[in-house]
Specification:
Layout: E1 2-4, H1 11-21, E2 26-31, E3 43-49, H2 55-63, E4 81-85, E5 93-97, H3 108-124, E6 128-136, H4 143-155, E7 159-164, H5 171-185, E8 191-197, H6 206-220
Parallel strand pairs: 3-5, 3-6, 6-7, 7-8
Antiparallel strand pairs: 1-8, 2-4, 4-5
């Protein structure tokens, strides 16, 4: 499900995006410090979200790899920037899995270090074409999410909101949450005017999400 002011994705775009993601995705780099980032190859998209929002599961669904991004029932486990690419295949696109935010049990010093790493990355990565901010469809945008959106707005980093775990909602609630989220972000200066509803469990919205990424990549090429 999509709520948007942009044109719908047609069958040709969806098929092209399927091919874009069908190659052999691999883990290529992990960074805990800004001076340890990998060389820039092609364009990058970054995934941000609260701990346990389903970030790793969604990356695995997009790439059709069951264990590309590490999933965990322990919130706050991802503590670094993880980079994934189709090495030796189609290297136009790199996926960056960012540390989850908003998990209170993690020490303040570690949270501060993660936050600095993320902010430095967002400010200094010239090939970063979009950040996808994942929001749990069951809960909507919380204060901690709003703070991240504010940071992206101030940094003028283009981002798009993607709702996860949409299968947990009834059909009417899916529509309501997608439209309500769109209403919240449509006036934000750096927000792309589209909200996608997805589920890594059922595959709902995954073809459209791939097509959204493919469209941005085509525009950047």
């Amino acid at each position: 499900m999509t709520t948007s002011t942009t044109k719908p994705y047609d069958a040709e775009e969806i098929e092209a995006a399927r091919k874009l993601f069908e190659g052999p995705w691999d883990f290529v780099w992990a960074s805990t410090k800004i001076n340890d980032l990998p060389p820039m190859v092609g364009q990058e998209i970054a995934f941000a979200g609260r701990s346990n929002v389903g970030k790793s599961s969604l990356i695995n669904a997009l790439t059709r790899r069951n264990a590309l991004a590490r999933t965990s029932h322990t919130p706050g486990r991802t503590q670094q920037l993880n980079f994934f690419r189709q090495v030796g295949h189609d290297e136009r696109l790199t996926i960056v899995d960012m540390p989850g935010y908003g998990y209170a049990a993690v020490g303040k010093e570690k949270v501060a270090a993660w936050t600095k790493l993320i902010h430095d990355y967002l400010r200094g990565r010239s090939n970063l074409m979009r950040v996808y901010v994942l929001i749990d469809a069951r809960h909507g945008i919380k204060d901690v999410d709003g703070a991240v959106l504010e940071t992206l707005d101030k940094a003028a980093v283009s981002y798009q909101v993607v709702l996860t775990k949409g299968d947990a909602l009834k059909k009417a609630d899916q529509t309501f949450m997608t439209e309500a989220t769109f209403d919240e972000i449509k006036r934000r200066p750096a927000a792309f005017p589209e909200v996608l509803l997805t589920s890594s469990e059922t595959g709902m919205g995954i073809p459209e999400f791939r097509a959204a990424i493919g469209r941005v990549l085509a525009e950047m090429s």
